Each structure stands twice: as structure tokens, then as C-alpha cells.
Amino acid sequence: MKRKLLESIVRDLKELDAVKQDSFFTDTLNNIELTTAKKAFKIAVVGEFSTGKSTFINAMIGRDLLSHATQEVTATITNIHNVPRSDKRYRTCDVTCYDGSVIHLKDDRKLVEYTTTQSRERDVVQDIRYVDYYTDFMEEGADVVIVDTPGLNGMADGHRELTLEEVKQANYCIYLFGIRGMADTDKAVIRQLSHYQNRFIFVLNFIDQIKTSEGEDVREILEDIRCFLEEDVFLGQKDKEYRLFGVSSLKALASKDQNIKRLYQNDTRDIGRGERETLYEESDFKGFEEYLAGAINNTTIETLRLEQMQYLLEHFLEEVEEQLAQSQEQIEFLRTEAGKAEGVERLKRTLADFEEMAGKNKEKVVNYAVSECANIRREFSDYTRERLEAMKRQNMDSLQQFRNYEDLEDYINSGELNGRVKVQADEIYDYVEKNMVVCLGGVLNNILMRIQEYMKDAHMKKDGEQIRFQIGKIQSRQEAGIRSMEQGLLEMEAKKRETERTISSMSQDIKDRERELSNASGTYSRENQMLSEAERRKQNRLNSLGAQPDVKRDYYYTTEYYTTYEKRTGLIGFVASIFGGGVKEVRRSRQIRHETIDDSQRKAWQKQRSQIIESANVEINRYKSQVDAAQNRVRSLKAQLDRQKENQDRAQKDYQYYKNKLDADKKILEDLRKKANQELLEALKKNVHQQLERYLDDKDGAIATVVREYIDQVIRTNKKIIIEKTEHFYDQRFDQTRRVYLDQIEGRRQQAAARYGDYSEQLSRIRQMRGRLGHGGR
Length: 778
Description:
Blueprint: H1 3-14, H2 17-20, H3 23-36, E1 41-46, H4 53-61, E2 77-82, E3 93-97, E4 102-105, H5 112-115, H6 124-127, E5 128-135, E6 144-148, H7 159-169, E7 172-177, H8 184-193, E8 199-204, H9 218-233, E9 241-246, H10 249-256, H11 275-283, H12 285-295, H13 301-335, H14 337-399, H15 405-413, H16 416-443, H17 479-545, E10 552-567, H18 570-578, E11 583-598, H19 600-695, H20 702-755, H21 760-776
Parallel strand pairs: 1-6, 1-7, 2-5, 7-8, 8-9
Antiparallel strand pairs: 2-6, 3-4, 3-5, 10-11
């Protein structure tokens, strides 16, 4: 495909008088140029406000950025540009206003104030023209823009026109279906979009909400959509290319954005660390992203632009040729003699046929409107009845999981059941309120596509009736015995707690006494050490005196004479002894040794030693006194500690007794309570069952009453509006067409024919262009 050839055909078309004189043709040709110009490749994301476009786009970019809700949110066009993270515009916004001013936002969290109907700062629909946001979501360098459009069924003025203008200028279209799948209104819209797009990605969103337990199947819904597209939308259009995916945008988004802590609003726990990968697998988003990355990238973008340009030019040339051929045929007929002669009669016959057919068609359309209103009322009433029955089953089944009265009582008192039923009721309210508008809009299809504008004030007053599950006083046969046992347990528990406090106090006293004993033992040890040191010092001082000095002795000698008597010996002595002369006197001398003693040194040593001992003993005795006091303190503290430990042991035995007794009594009480609990549980379940039955009754229940009144009100009000608008539309069309015929019949046809030129040359040029496009475009 050659861009130069296509651009030359566009230039030639601009020179044709038929194109220049027709504003529709001129605008269409300008759109073709804008769409295929070498600029950012635009992917328009389209769908009704209930299809989850913003959540889907958030999942594509991996951040919970665009605001999303069950009601209409997006209020203006948001262009999300693919840029590298090094780009200075990364994660910033430029808000372009209708007055020409541009607001630059560095904090992308403020984006909600400039794009949604929920903005608190400004009227976004009236003030903001479009918003540009910069982030990365495709391969680096791919100049791609995702366009988030308002819902096609939005209530605000201009939303539909805004979306269609964006689709006209987009290079690719992603169309989202909600959980209900494809409807007749989708068929009309897709056919309209296919005038500007030949490639689509269709996405069934919210597959996580499909009720597989009720027999719903994703594959069956996708197959139904595929058949609907093939047989009712693209029948015979071989130039249309599309792919169909089923995804859960919410699970895909939660798997990518770590700031999302809980998947659903009513979840009671955060998403675990290892769960996000599982959520991505369950979302089925991978297949869609892989296909998109393969279909739109740096290699394919230019080829896709040129293919779209050829597609648009082919249809444009076909449309121009058809209109010129019809005009030329009419002119040629009016210029013939037969045309001049038979023209009036022919017009009269045509007018009569038209008047007859218009009357019949008007009656058919009015009858169709009445019939469809009745069908819608019946369908939504059936839906409400089925959902109420399902709610009843689900909530009653949920009560069966409780095995004791207290858990069920806590569950009810916590308001969780109230909240759950309220959420389920709101789902019914929201579905009916939202889809009745869509279905009523589809009754007139293209004729009254915007009938929703007349229903802005017809909302359900659903806050006036809310269920409050009440728990009445329920008595059990075992209640008296339980109260007596509970009183005994309270008393035993009090004794146990008192013993625990005593043990705790004793433990502290023992710790204090042990600390005192430790300190006293330390003191005793130090005093003993000091005593030993004093005794060592005494011994050292004594040792330093050395050995006791010896007494100094001097000797001198004198001669002493003395007389001794000796016994005579021998024969002489014997004889002498006979006569009394046996002893003789002998004179002798001897040396007498005299000793002088000097003990002054010894006495000095002994005096010094006595002084040392006396001085040291004073210190030693002082220390001995301190050691004795410390030892007595240690003995006293040990005795006190032993008594405290004995008291603690007795208290511990008392505590163990109370504890064992308490445990045994608790077991008895538990058995009593189990018996009573079962009685109370069954009585409470019965009580709640009765309340659910009354509240969820499909005839007289609060939800059914509110929904039925709303359905009747909407049908009653809008049936009249639909019929009036249908009749007015037909009357208006009838009058317009009838005036054209009457004008021609009254002779103005000649004047009109005179104004017609000859289109044969322009037809020839158009056919030549189609030939060039067919031979050289591919």
C-alpha cells in the first residue's frame, strides 16, 4: 500500500465540486486525513458507562488512576500517551480547557478533579475540553495514545457526540461489553462505528462476576457475542477484522497495582503477597495484552494507518458515487419528455403510496413501543424475582455455617448480614435502574437513541426501606443451671486471680530478698577479704621484724679452793675403815666460770612485735566484728528467703488447685452451653430465616415493592414519552416528505431540475479513482 497514491486520491477528491459543495463529504474527507496523518496512533476505548472502561484502561497502564464506579463517571476525553520513564512528562497531566487555557498537573492523583462527573472543583463537562496524561504501557518508542471516552449511553449532553468524534479520528477501536453481554443497542452502535473503523477488539469485561454456580459460562457468552457479530452486525462485510476476549479488568488491575489492598469493597482481608500472580492468571488479561502488543507496535503502526486510509477511502468513494449516480439518474429522467409528462402523476402516486405506508408504519411502531414496554416490564420483574430467590438461598445457606449461637449473634450484631443484603439489594436496584434506561433507549433504536435524556429524574427511592435483623430474647432450658455454674466460676476465677496477685507479689518480694541477699553476701565477701588483708598485713609486718635476737652472753673464770672428803680405797682404806679412819680430807681447787647476759635487743624486738600485734589486732577485730555482722545478715536473709519460698510454694499449690477446679468447671459449663447453644442457634436461625423470608419476598417484600414500583413508574412515564416521541417523529418526517412531493407536484420540480448540473464527468472521475485504489492500493 502506497501512501503517496492514497494522498493523491484525497487531493483529487477535494477538487470535485460534488465534494466541495457538500459539507458532509468535506467533513468526512477531513476526518480521513486527520485519522491517517503521521501522528500518534490512537486507540479509542468505547462502550456504555456500565462496561468498566476506566477499570479496563487502568489495568492496561497498571495503575488505579482513572476513576470508576457503577454509575456514569467519565465526563471528558482523556488521552493517555505512551512515553518512556525518562520523559520529563512521565506521570504528569495537561488539562486543556474550552477557554484555551492549559493546566499542568504534576500530581496525577488530582486527575479525578478534571475528568469525572464527581469533580468537586469544576463542571468538567462544561469546562474541560480534553486531558492528556503521560505514562508507559506499551513498548518503548511506540507513539500510541489510549483514548478514554464517555459512555455512549451517558446522560450528559454531548457525550455520545464526543465519543463518535473520537472514533472517527482514531486508528483502532476497542469496544467493551458489560456483564450482560451484547444487546440490540450495541448492534446499532457498532454498525455506526464500523463506518469509521475496519478493525475492532471486542472485550467482555467482568468475567469474575459471571455466576458459574448458576450455570453461566464465559465461553458460551463469548460464543453468543461472536454469533451476534457475525450474523447481525457484520453479516456480509468481509472487510471487517476483529478479535474477541473475555477478561476481568479488576483482577488484572489488582495484580499490577500494589497499592490496591483488597480486590472487592466487601472483602475482609488484604490481598496476600503471592496472590497477585494468581489474580493476573485468573483475569485472562495476558491473552489480550499479547495480542495487542503483536497487532500494534513500531513495525505495524504505519501499515495499519494506510490500511485504514484505504478502507475509509473505499467506502467514501462508494458513497459519493452512489449519491452522484442517484442524482444523475433523477436529473436525466426529469429532462426527458416522459419525465416531464409523467412526473406529476408519478409523484402523486408515490405520495399516495407514501401516505398509506406511513400510516401503517406509524401504527406498527406505536404497537411495537407498547409491546416492548410490556416485555421490558415483564423481563425486569422476572429478573427481580429470580435475584430475590437467589439472595434468599445464598443468605439462608450462609447461616448454616454457624455452629454456635454466639458466633451467629456476633455476625448479626456486627451488621455484616445487613450490609451483605444491602449490597445485594443495591445490585438489583442498580441493575434495574441502569438497564431499564438502556432497554427503553433501544426500543426506538436509531429513532429515539437519546430517549434517556427524558428520564433523568426517574430514580428509585431505595433508601427508605432497609432491613435491620433483630435478635429477640431467646430462653434455653439449661439457662438457670448455666447461670449458677457461671456464678461459681466467677467466684473461683476471683480466688484464682487473687492467688495470682499473691504469687506475683511474693515473686517480687523474693526477687527483692534475693537481691538483698546477693548484696549482703557481697558485703560479707568483701569484709572477709578485708579481714584477710588485715591479717596478711599483720603477718607481713611481723615477718619484716625478722627472727627474735639472741641474748648476748660473756664469760670469765675465778679459782675456788675447797675441801672434800674422800673414801679411802684399796687395802689401806680397808684397814682404815676398820679403825674408823676410812675417810680422808682432801684440799682442792677449781675454775668457776661466770656469765654476763645482755638482752636489750631482744627486749626491743619483743616490744616492737607487741606493738605491731596490738595495732593490727585492733584493725583485725574491727573487721571480724563487721564480718560477723555481715554473716549474721546473710543468715537472716537466707532464713527469710526460705520462708518466702515456702509461702510461695503454698500459694502456687493453691493457684494450681483453683486453676484445675476452674478448668474442670469450665468444661462442665461448656457442655451445658453447647446444649443450650444448639437450642438458641436453631431458634435464632429460625428467627432470621423468617425475617429474610419477609424482606426478600418477591411479592410483598421491601426490595420487590421498591423495584416493582420503580419499574411501573418508569414504564408508565416513558411509555407515554416513547409513544409521543414516536408519533411526533413520524408526523414530522411525514410532513417533511409530503411537502417535498407537493412542492414538486406544484411545479417546483422544474425549477429544481434547472438547478441540477451534470454529474457524469464527476462520476467518471470517481470511478477512475476507485480503479486506481483497487489496483495500486494494496
